[in-house]
TrEMBL record:
Protein name: F-box domain, leucine-rich repeat domain superfamily, F-box-like domain superfamily
Domain F-box: 11-61
Length: 204
């Protein structure tokens, strides 16, 4: 059997697997690797968009970088991420964002819109927001609208509660690293997390 034919046959076998089997397989890949499967065929173009657990590294594009340098970096900016999430076909249960570099006000506004979109359209159970160690950003208020959260991991954020906060009724684990939160805010937050079992405060 020719190698090319054998390769096509192997791909066809994978393509015929039912979606409930394909999703766990794709979930074992990184988000970037899963997205690459979209070039396999028309049938595969949107299959990766049903993966419920996503991880992205974000970096703001600057005019100092050439288009070739940007393409080699393989990073997304806030706008890219927003567009990807809007095109999603499936639920988002876990989202991890590594935010590198300096983000301006317009980027942070879009960041707020991203979290707002999640709160309105998805049942997010785990959220990881990891910003630069040297900078603190104000945590989007819309994070407190993610009422189904079971795990929340924050790094390098200033945390202020909204005027109306109904709590995280399902939150089991809370990690706050290298951020800023007042004692009063922390007490109020914890008093509204009735199911909390694990709390980690590092450098906060």
């Amino acid at each position: 059997m020719k190698p090319e034919y054998a390769e096509r046959m192997a791909l066809d076998r994978i393509s015929t697997l039912p979606q409930p089997i394909l999703e766990p397989i794709l979930s074992l890949l990184s988000t970037e690797e899963a997205a690459r499967t979209s070039i396999l065929s028309k049938e595969w173009r949107y299959r990766w968009t049903t993966i419920p657990n996503l991880e992205f590294t974000l970096r703001k594009r600057t005019s100092e970088l050439t288009s070739d340098e940007e393409s080699e970096m393989k990073y997304m900016d806030m706008h890219d991420l927003h567009q990807v999430l809007l095109l999603r076909h499936g639920p988002i249960h876990e989202l991890t964002l590594f935010m590198e570099g300096y983000w301006e006000d317009d980027d942070l506004f879009e960041f707020e819109q991203i979290i707002l979109h999640l709160s309105r359209n998805h049942i997010v159970r785990e959220l990881v927001l990891d910003a630069s160690e040297s900078l603190w950003y104000k945590l989007p208020i819309s994070v407190f609208s993610l009422h189904h959260l079971m795990e929340l991991h924050l790094r390098s954020f200033t945390i202020e509660l909204p005027s109306i906060f109904n709590g995280f009724g399902s939150l089991v684990r809370l990690d706050l690293n290298d951020g800023e939160i007042s004692t009063q805010t922390l007490r109020h937050l914890l008093s509204n997390c009735p199911t909390l079992k694990s709390l980690s405060l590092v450098g906060s």
